């Protein structure tokens, strides 16, 4: 028997791409491929790409440039582009990059093995359709081995919101939820393989409305059913939209022990004028009231968010509104970006804030966000948290895990194994992580 072929996948962008890459690796496993960690010895290289900002999209073309010598040296090497750039610019990639053998959009991954067979026969293959069938029904999602006690599980895909700046509704298509029983089956399979924490994924995960017993289930209902699974200790979900934060989901944060006290709830801007221009369909006040209701049931919840500065038409006053909102919310973790015009989106037609002003606002916002993050992290010192240990750290006897609040925690001498959850007293707050000691010591 010949040696298995080797597949190297490089993943960019969001966690949904991470999940998809795992599914593609499994699907290709059935076609005789094993994964490798280096491009140099691969028979096939797949770039799973992101189109969210210009810089993210450009990475694909520079990476393809770097792969050219490999392909020149080994003409048998197959190169594929998957993900959101594939969806948005697939035909252009094929035209501009003769070294690309295969382009596959995010909704067609179940067709990847058939495409690989065509490519092996010397053809070039492109599939950026939005097929009727659900790719996840046809992708294995039965990993043979897991590398750790945490896993992602996509439950919802696509977006119908059409924020004026965003490519996701075009690259991922309309909002679709996976049936509840499939999610539960996949979750049970993960738990059997040692997974203790599952993060439910979706572009608008809290808009989940999958078919379940008695009709469509909300995300809260799905979480409560998942919480019944023995040995599944922790549940998280991301990313949520403020307008889909239902009463039952807020309530779950108050009384579902396995649902972790962490919520990523992007608001993008604190200015009502900008929010309207972004087509977010909520005001800053709506968002603040929502945060108040969530904190009423779970006062210690750690909030995280996304911000865009320099959106077309944003004035200094609008930006001040954003700083004010950040001060009111107090985030434990945030992502902030300079607006990046994306072809085909409504905002790309509008006149931009000049680049220096946008950079200056981003620096000021990040200064505030970093300060908040540090304060909240430093306030953990002296507290006892529960850590789910994930892997060995760099020091002898050290293990690294995550607290309920998703802070990375280093602990030495705990005797813990990956998958254990133990109480840890936090003794130190570093730049990117906490250090703790076993709480019983
Ligand atoms: N579905 C999620 C996140 C989508 S993309 C949500 O609705 O919140 C992740 C983040 O990228 C967004 O929250 C936004 O802050 C940022 N983003 C999206 N498009 C962008 C653009 N054109 N320029 C800059 N940032 C952008
Ligand atoms: Fe993009 Fe808005 Fe949809 Fe989020 S809600 S994916 S930002 S269009
Ligand atoms: Fe990027 Fe597509 Fe995710 S554009 S952020 S990879 S949905």
Overview of the structural elements:
A hairpin with a 2-residue loop joins strand 11 and strand 12. The protein has 3 domains: 123 residues, Methylthiotransferase, N-terminal domain (Rossmann fold); 244 residues, tm_1862 like domain (pyruvate-formate lyase- activating enzyme), CATH 3.80.30.20; 55 residues, OB fold (Dihydrolipoamide Acetyltransferase, E2P) (Beta Barrel), CATH 2.40.50.140. The longest helix has 24 residues. It contains 13 helices and 21 strands. The chain has 441 residues and is α/β, with parallel strands linked by helices. The termini are far apart. The model has no long low-confidence stretch (mean pLDDT 95). The protein has a 6-stranded parallel sheet, sandwiched between helices. S-adenosyl-L-homocysteine (SAH) binds next to strand 15.
Which SSEs are present, and which pair or pack?
Layout: E1 5-11, H1 15-29, E2 33-35, E3 44-49, H2 54-73, E4 78-82, H3 83-96, E5 102-104, H4 112-120, E6 125-127, H5 135-138, E7 150-154, E8 156-157, H6 168-171, E9 176-177, H7 180-192, E10 197-201, E11 211-212, E12 215-216, H8 219-227, E13 234-238, H9 247-255, E14 262-264, H10 272-277, H11 284-297, E15 302-309, H12 316-329, E16 333-338, H13 355-378, E17 384-392, E18 398-402, E19 408-412, E20 421-429, E21 434-438
Parallel strand pairs: 1-2, 1-3, 3-4, 4-5, 5-6, 7-10, 10-13, 14-15, 15-16, 19-21
Antiparallel strand pairs: 8-9, 11-12, 17-18, 17-20, 18-19, 20-21
The protein binds S-adenosyl-L-homocysteine (SAH), iron/sulfur cluster (SF4) and FE3-S4 cluster.
The site of FE3-S4 cluster has 13 residues, from helix 1, helix 3 and helix 6.
